[in-house]
Design goal:
Blueprint (H helix, E strand, L loop, with lengths): L3 H12 L7 E4 L5 E6 L6 H10 L3 E8 L2 H6 L1 E10 L2 E10 L4 E3 L8 H12 L2 E3 L17 H5 L2 H4 L5 H16 L1
Parallel strand pairs: 2-5, 6-7
Antiparallel strand pairs: 1-2, 3-4, 4-5
Helix pairs in contact: 1-2
Amino acid sequence: MQDVKTQVQEALDRAVSGPVSIDWKKDFKGVQTGWCKLPESAQLLAAGAGIAEIGGRLSTVTAYLAQKYLVQGRREIAYHFDLDGTTLTLTIELPLEKAQVPSLTPLFRNADWNEREFMELYDIEVIGHPDPRRLFIDESIEPAVFDRLIPYSTLTNGAGSKTLWEAVMARNSEEKR
């Protein structure tokens, strides 16, 4: 029987039509993790199908805007998969404006909320999503409002709730002028 690294490598090579580089690491407890940056976001659906075929499960998805990407006008999304205790993270880069990504919800039902959050909070178009309704913010508010007003990482940091509230109120006052 093949080891997980070989299964993943072969599945991704088949799925994206060519060799894909995966950086595998093992920590001091023997936990294995792999990181792979897909060359194109359009390859995500095929890569996800390859991971599903070998029994992978989607754990979570993370969209973030690191400073190095902000300067380039890009953001990154990381898709974290579990394969019997081995974690594989597939990353893709997207432009900040008019970003599009294929939906993994048809393959992994639990991608639903993450993808809806992307549409709502970051204005990323998730192509083929079965239920693109908003989760939290009223439809009358423009998409990606938090990206423009307050970085999402600040928003979700409970320790900064007073600072966050003050920033929201200050921005609200500026917009009314």
